[in-house]
Write a structure and sequence with these properties.
This protein is an alpha/beta fold. Helix 21 packs antiparallel against helix 27 and helix 31 crosses helix 33. About 45% of the residues are buried.
Length: about 1000
């Protein structure tokens, strides 16, 4: 559009130059200017022509559509309103609606060529379910959801009498403590919603603003039997340490002592441990008679000393759903996280005893390390243990070199591969015991790194790395994250629309590939290209080999196409069937008909994206031959960088969609950012241009609203160019008969109100409410999205066709009107009023022809504009005798509307001016285009289905009536398809 606005400036300058030159030539023909009556004393013709040039700039300035930018913004506001109020984009479960956080890029939704999507929480529910774990060379399967997880009977048995029961026990402790889970008595609610609005609390006190604070004297609760208490000293029976936790290697039948002996409990007075700063008694008074009280861990009859009911059972809340699933898994085996503070974690055990660990340090998860760990101190032995969990690619290389770890790692790798093939998310758990001296040495280095002013992040990361080493393997977990309902259909629709879909995930390649097949990102018919290398040479060899293979296949296909060229005659009729649209859904503009999918991992991306490798270009060339790309083990920075190079080097319009903070950089880099308001907070939503609740809504957002917005704005902009150019050309033709003096044949106020009042409503109606096809048609035929993806509605030549059309119509309007009134007695104002009326009528009829779906708003805009024009002209010509000191058009319209010649001229010029457009529309009906064929085909199928359904409901008696009433429109459309196909 901006390019065409520049062309409008060029046309304006050209018209002004022609007018100035014409003025000079006209004046130069008169040698004695004094003999000309009413002509003022003139200077040199050259000087007068220069002044006239600027006069033409003023009267032709309508050619530059300044009001177009205002109209576009108003249309986009209307489009945004309808997107936000679309019931198809409303999540009934959460009550969330689609949000448009950027008001100026609605048309880009219809031009997306690449979609970059996160996986976890975007394609999946992000509701993690603990499904499998592997400990001591054994695999344990689980069923049920987190709240009702069914413990594995074999694992429970191994916990009691198994040869590696101590390893299982410590594995469960890792699940319960190595996290940032918070224990609350009531669910947490944010007082600020995703739109940034602070919600008011409800009157009953249970609303968005009511949360539970974890103070040091709050009493934790959990669903477990009461802990026996001594009536004399008020202490809580807990576990007795037998031997310290050691980091030496053990075999699977190890008999090393677990730090907590479950069979010999002793009394532990938690309040006597000043370093913890908390007590399980929570500051509540004991009854005077020393009788026993139920523990708040018991969900039944929980009362304090005053007989008041205590809070409900504890609720786990976590930033990561993975951690929540692990904590629930530990709780299923009665290893329960009772309470957590910044300095302690209290855990209860199967024998109804508790233990309070002192939290020394928490090493948070980051995308580079791909792991998190917690450093705990045992309250009795004062032993320091590091518990750690993370991705297998980063955890297994950190294991200590021992026979046990070697054997365990081999078994774990097999289970991890099996879990990944099942589409499960995998984590590896490990531990390390530190001596007091090792810990003090590390703590000093860590404190120095945190206080450093230079390279602080790198130094802190180095301290993490030094601590997270020489680990002892405990086990692995497999967590299920189900796909959202409708993801497969949405992914198939995007691929069918010709959009290249990239899924960027941090999961293992095996897990990601399994999910890709489930989501229909990959299909069995696709050729799967694996790109996994650890060096530049290997990566280059793979890329070059794939490209050469693709080139050979393309040459073979080209030769085959030439031989089968005659079979493509009927292609225009059948190409929009769903099967063919799906076969055509390869790379944009790609000559290769075979679909391919590419799988690449993060380490290979690191090699390829390095500018020094010179592999970025060949890699992008390879991706251009693929309809889908799956990038595994990627970091947030890699996601953003991939989007950036696709935008810059391929020149594609990109969309990024994600739900978490790690997707923010990718979302902000893309042309269009879409955030999903899910389980991972609102960071992605706040950074995005659009916000939806679930990934399947993306098809409605792109294929429907994107298509509508692009088509509406494209046709509205062309209409704006058309009506402005027609008006300017009409004024220009008059200059041929007024000596290029810069005079106009109509009142000056019409020049000002032409765009502001007379023709302002139809473009808005086109830009906000017109629909080239129904949502059902656009969703049923995703291939129609290529009209926006390839820019077929507004192409380079569209502007010049519009200008030529405007030029033709201006010639018809002006010269037919001149011929009709030739040698008559009407004055210049009535002549100009007739031309102005014909121009307005033609502009409004043109808008009516361009309207695809009529609504009351379209009718009101056109009829209202026509009524406003006549009403204003009649009123203005009646009251304004000599307004603002300018020559007026008093009573001109009142006289003109009484003349039959006026109406016949308006009708004749309107019909002849619009004749080419009407012929074009008639040809389009006889030989319908792709959009018409698809719409009629789908409408006929829908009509047939409706007819069959209603016939079955009404029975054979009402067959004729039911058929005629319910399917008359569909039948007519079906006949048209039969005739025109």
């Amino acid at each position: 559009m901006n390019r065409d606005v520049k062309w409008c400036v060029v046309i304006l300058v050209a018209l002004c130059l022609i007018g100035a030159c014409g003025c000079r030539l006209w004046l130069a023909t008169y040698t004695d200017t004094k003999a000309i009556p009413f002509l003022p004393v003139l200077q040199e013709p050259l000087y007068e022509s220069m002044l006239t040039f600027w006069t033409f700039v003023i009267i032709f300035q309508v050619m530059i559509p300044l009001s177009l930018y205002v109209t576009i913004e108003m249309a986009k506001v209307g489009q945004v309103y309808h997107i936000g109020h679309d019931p198809a984009l409303h999540d009934t479960e959460t009550g969330r609606k689609a949000e448009c956080r950027a008001l100026n890029i609605t048309e880009e939704l219809g031009q997306v060529q690449y979609v970059f999507s996160d996986k976890t929480g975007t394609l999946t529910e992000n509701k993690m379910l603990f499904r499998r774990c592997a400990v001591g060379g054994q695999d344990y399967s689980h069923m049920g959801d987190n709240e009702n997880l069914l413990p594995c009977a074999r694992l429970k048995e191994d916990l009691l009498i198994g040869t590696f029961r101590h390893r299982l026990q410590e594995f469960l402790i890792v699940l319960a403590t190595c996290n940032t889970v918070v224990v609350n008595s009531q669910p947490h609610h944010d007082i600020m919603n995703s739109s940034g609005v602070i919600e008011e609390p409800q009157k009953n006190g249970i609303g968005p603003t009511r949360t539970t604070e974890l103070s040091t004297n709050s009493f934790p609760t959990a669903a477990s039997p009461p802990i026996p208490m001594s009536p004399k000293n008020g202490t809580i029976r807990t576990l007795s340490p037998v031997s310290p936790v050691i980091s030496t290697a053990n075999t699977f039948d190890d008999t090393s002592k677990f730090p907590f002996k479950l069979s010999r409990p002793k009394l532990l007075n938690v309040t006597s441990i000043p370093s913890l700063g908390i007590g399980l008694l929570g500051g509540r008074k004991q009854s005077p008679d020393g009788s026993k009280r139920r523990s708040p861990l018991n969900p039944v009859d929980m009362r304090n000393g005053d007989g008041e009911l205590l809070p409900s059972p504890a609720i786990y809340e976590a930033e990561s759903p993975d951690e929540l699933a692990l904590v629930h898994a530990a709780r299923a085996y009665d290893v329960k996280l009772v309470k957590r503070t910044p300095r302690s974690a209290i855990v209860s055990f199967p024998d109804k005893s508790t233990l309070a660990f002192e939290i020394l340090h928490v090493l948070p998860f980051d995308s580079n390390r791909k792991r998190m760990s917690v450093l705990l101190r045992h309250p009795h032995t004062r032993e320091i243990v590091l518990y750690i969990k993370g991705a297998d690619t980063t955890m297994l290389p950190l294991l200590s070199a021992s026979d046990e770890n070697t054997v365990a790692a081999t078994n774990i790798r097999q289970y991890l591969q099996s879990y990944a093939r099942q589409g499960l998310r995998t984590l590896v758990m490990a531990r390390r015991t530190l001596s007091e001296q090792e810990y003090e040495t590390w703590r000093q280095k860590h404190n120095e790194a945190e206080l450093a002013t230079e390279n602080r992040e790198r130094r802190v990361r180095d301290t993490y790395t030094s601590l997270e080493s020489h680990l002892t393997l405990l086990g692995a977990t497999g967590i299920e994250d189900k796909l959202q309902a409708g993801v497969a259909e949405t992914m198939a629709a995007l691929v069918g629309a010709g959009i290249v879909v990239w899924v960027l995930t941090g999961d293992k390649p095996e897990t990601a590939v399994n999910v890709a097949y489930s989501a229909r990102l990959f299909s069995p018919a696709m050729q799967l290209l694996q790109l996994q290398a650890r060096s530049k040479s290997v990566a280059e060899t793979l890329i070059r080999g794939y490209l050469e293979s693709v080139r050979r296949e393309s040459m073979n296909n080209a030769a085959h196409t030439q031989q089968q060229g005659s079979t493509n005659i009927t292609h225009s009729t059948v190409m929009y069937n769903h099967d063919l649209a799906e076969r055509d859904a390869h790379r944009i503009g790609s000559p290769w008909p075979r679909q391919r999918a590419l799988v690449i991992d993060g380490k290979t991306l690191t090699v390829i994206l390095d500018p020094r490798s010179d592999l970025t270009g060949p890699f992008l060339e390879l991706t251009k031959t693929c309809s889908s790309v799956l990038a595994c083990r990627t970091t947030p920075l890699q996601k953003a960088y991939i989007v950036r190079i696709v935008k810059k080097q391929l020149g594609m319009r990109t969309l990024a969609i994600g739900d978490g903070a790690n997707d923010v950089s990718m979302i902000q880099t893309a042309d269009v950012g879409v955030g999903i308001s899910g389980q991972e907070g609102t960071q992605a939503v706040m950074a995005a241009d659009f916000a939806i609740s679930r990934f399947p809504m993306l098809s409605q957002l792109l294929l429907v609203h994107g298509h509508w917005c692009y088509d509406r704005l494209a046709r509205m902009i062309l209409y704006f160019f058309y009506k402005n150019a027609t008006f300017v050309f009409l004024i220009f033709w008059f200059q041929l008969y007024c000596g290029f003096s810069g005079a106009v044949m109509m009142d000056q106020i019409y020049l000002m109100l032409y765009n502001l009042l007379f023709t302002s409503l139809p473009p808005l109606a086109l830009g906000i409410y017109d629909r080239v096809a129904t949502s059902h048609v656009l969703l049923s035929a995703p291939d129609l999205y290529k009209r926006g993806r390839l820019g077929l509605v507004y192409q380079t030549y569209s502007f010049w066709i519009t200008i030529i059309d405007a030029l033709y119509q201006s010639i018809v309007i002006f010269f037919i009107t001149k011929a009709v009134y030739y040698d008559s007695t009407i004055d210049i104002w009535e002549f100009g009023t007739t031309i102005m009326t014909a121009c307005i009528v033609v502009m409004l009829l043109y808008a009516a022809i361009e309207t695809r779906s009529w609504t009351i708003i379209h009718i009101g805009a056109i009829m209202g504009s026509l009524g406003v024009f006549f009403g204003f002209c009649l009123f203005y010509n009646a009251v304004c005798v000599n307004c603002m000191g300018l020559p007026g058009s008093y009573w001109i319209m009142e006289k003109a509307v009484t003349r039959h010649m006026y109406w016949l001229t308006v009708i004749l010029t309107s019909v002849l001016a619009l004749m080419p457009r009407l012929i074009y529309k008639a040809v389009a009906v006889i030989a319908p285009g792709t959009m018409q064929i698809v719409s009629l085909n789908i409408a006929a199928k829908s009509g047939t289905q409706v007819r069959r359904q209603r016939i079955s409901q009404r029975g054979e008696v009402n067959f004729i009536a039911g058929w005629s009433r319910s399917s008359q429109h569909a039948t007519i459309r079906y006949i048209l398809i039969t005739l025109f196909s």
